[in-house]
Amino acid sequence: MPNSDNSPRYDVIAIGNAIVDVMAPCEDELIDELALNKGGMTLVDEDGAKRLYDAMGPAREISGGSAANTLAGLSAMGAQCAFIGQVADDQLGEVFAHDIRAVGIDFDTPVRPGPPATARCLIFVTPDAQRTMNTFLGASQFLPPETLDADAVAAARILYLEGYLWDPEEPRAAMRRAIEAAREAGRKVAFTLSEVFVIDRHGDDFRALIEDGLIDILFANHLELAALTGEDDFEAGIAALEGKVPTLVVTRSADGAVAVSDGKRAEVAAEPVGEVVDTTGAGDLFAAGFLSGHVKGDSLENCLTRGAVCAAEIISHYGARPEADLRELVAKKLG
């Protein structure tokens, strides 16, 4: 329940896919053999997920999901967080719930009985560190609006929404309800565009949210920026959104990141990494770093630096959950 004085209980509450990542290294030949979309994300059905799992080498199971990864990074930096997402009453559902609670994130969404199973993302990591993701959304796409804890949403400084989850009807309705709850409580709404194919399907919805002033912080990479604005030129894309969202954050992979907020612009270079092992979760952890500064009122440049440090940590190892002490890394960088 929100406090009577309207002070936030949480720094960030997020709604996203509750997914368990199943990760395995592989050679490019296997990507070709399986006709996978190298470096991209493809939705698969349950039979397809089983076929790909059978083709994998030794794998690691790590709780994932874009928004959940962002919260894990935020929690590692001391933020108070909560997650809303749907798992099934099965083993992977238990794995996801255990992992997210173990890092200090509140997760109280009731499990869904019966099929489909808990979502999983089968990730093939090639020697060039590209991750090829094949996602079975399973139970995660059946998050009913009536399970939304509007009081918890109202008790968070920022509501963070994952674009991936806009695709299925039930969670899309839940997220619209969450936006209303956040707005009524005077909270901020952050949105991550997630992937170009999501914009191809729902770009009109996203543009309407922006035009209606319902998004306070928008996260995108340079490809998503182009897809959303229709501008291939990066600066033209920035200009198309500047002023329509209070804070725009755009990552450019190895070329760093740019943020524009209330007429101010900041840019940072990508942090150097000894070896890029796996790019899974780079954008998720960048968002975590940025938001960890934003909720503290840090400068725009420092927020970007925090994001770059967190993204660099995550791509230095397998998996989208931090392994090093993010607070220590950020403190060392910012001095």
The coarse silhouette is globular
Q: How many strand elements?
A: 14
CATH class, named: Alpha Beta
- Which class do the helix and strand fractions yield? alpha/beta
Structure commentary:
- The chain is an alpha/beta fold.
- 39% of the residues lie in helices and 21% in strands.
- It has one domain (10-17, 66-114, 140-334): 3-Layer(aba) Sandwich (UDP-N-acetylmuramoyl-L-alanine:D-glutamate ligase), CATH 3.40.1190.
- A hairpin with a 2-residue loop joins strand 13 and strand 14.
- Helix 7 (196-211) crosses helix 8.
Task: Write the topology of this structure.
Elements: E1 10-15, E2 19-25, H1 28-33, E3 41-43, H2 46-55, E4 60-64, H3 66-76, E5 81-84, H4 91-102, E6 106-107, E7 119-125, E8 131-136, H5 150-154, E9 156-162, H6 169-184, E10 188-192, H7 196-211, E11 217-221, H8 222-229, H9 234-241, E12 247-251, E13 257-261, E14 264-268, H10 282-294, H11 300-314, H12 326-334
Helix pairs in contact: 3-10, 7-8, 8-9, 10-11, 11-12
Short overview:
By secondary structure, the chain is α/β, with parallel strands linked by helices. It has a single domain, classed as Ribokinase (UDP-N-acetylmuramoyl-L-alanine:D-glutamate ligase, 3-Layer(aba) Sandwich), CATH 3.40.1190. 39% of the residues lie in helices and 21% in strands.
